[in-house]
Design goal:
Layout: H1 2-20, H2 34-37, E1 43-49, E2 52-57, E3 72-78, E4 81-89, H3 96-111, E5 117-121, E6 124-131, E7 136-143, E8 149-155, H4 156-159
Length: 176
């Protein structure tokens, strides 16, 4: 009986950190308040600009893209509510067609719809998706020569709170 009790307690102790994890970087709760998401203290604010607060998440985060690249991931909040997730992918070796095909397939699967817009702007391929059910917009830019990538997933209702913001300061424009 004592061994069984020790085993159950040991499992609980090992599983507790997984259960306590309050933030899922794969499926962020857009619109949620920073106070609710940051109970574990893993969000670290690094900038505030144009009414938007930017944070790095220092907790455990593993996304499918980590199997292929080493992305930089950050988050933006408007009025302390989760507005956007940004991902930057450094230059990468490979064929741009393969990268675009994999990206289009994986993001479409994640969003649940095909891109509604694909275009080339100079050396950049730009894709956009819209998940109407969740009011989420996705934008991805891939550089055709360096394979560098940038993406943003943002919560459209919060974007309406950005008044008089210029394109250079709008993180959803992916200009930076």
């Amino acid at each position: 009986m004592l061994k069984k009790t020790c085993f159950i307690i040991g499992l609980f102790i090992l599983a507790f950190p997984l259960m306590a994890q309050s933030f899922d970087c794969n499926k962020p709760d857009f619109g949620a308040r920073i106070e609710d998401l940051n109970k574990d203290g893993f969000f670290i604010k690094y900038m505030e600009k144009g009414g938007i607060s930017y944070y790095n998440y220092t907790g455990g985060c593993r996304m499918d893209m980590h199997n292929h690249v080493n992305p930089s991931i950050s988050y933006a909040f408007i009025d302390n509510q989760l507005y956007a997730r940004f991902v930057k992918i450094p230059e990468k070796e490979g064929q741009i067609e393969d990268i675009r095909n994999r990206m289009e397939k994986n993001v479409s699967k994640q969003v649940g719809t095909q891109p509604y817009s694909m275009k080339q702007d100079g050396d950049w391929w730009i894709y956009q998706w819209f998940n109407e059910k969740d009011n989420l917009k996705y934008k991805v830019k891939v550089h055709s020569k360096t394979n560098e990538g940038k993406s943003v997933c943002y919560y459209e209702p919060l974007r309406a709170k950005l008044k008089n913001i210029n394109e250079a300061d709008d993180p959803a424009s992916l200009t930076n």
